[in-house]
Amino acid sequence: MLQLESTQEALESIKQKGYVELKNIFSQEKVEKVNQIIESPLNRPSINGSKGYIRKNNIRFLFATLSWGREIIELYTHPAVIRLIDEYVGEPVHLSNFRIYRTFPSRYERMAWHVDNKFEDYDEKSGTFTTHLALHDKGIIMIMYLSDVEDGGFQIVEGSHLWSFKEPKETWDDREKDFSDKIVTFNNRPKGTTIIYDYRCVHRAKPYQGTRQIRTSLFGQFSPSFMPVGEPILLNARDIDQLNDLQKRVLKVGEIPSSENWPIGEPGEVIEDLGLKAIRSLLFVQAKKAAKRLGIRKKAQ
Question: How far apart are CA 101 and CA 98, in angstroms?
Answer without folding.
Answer: 10
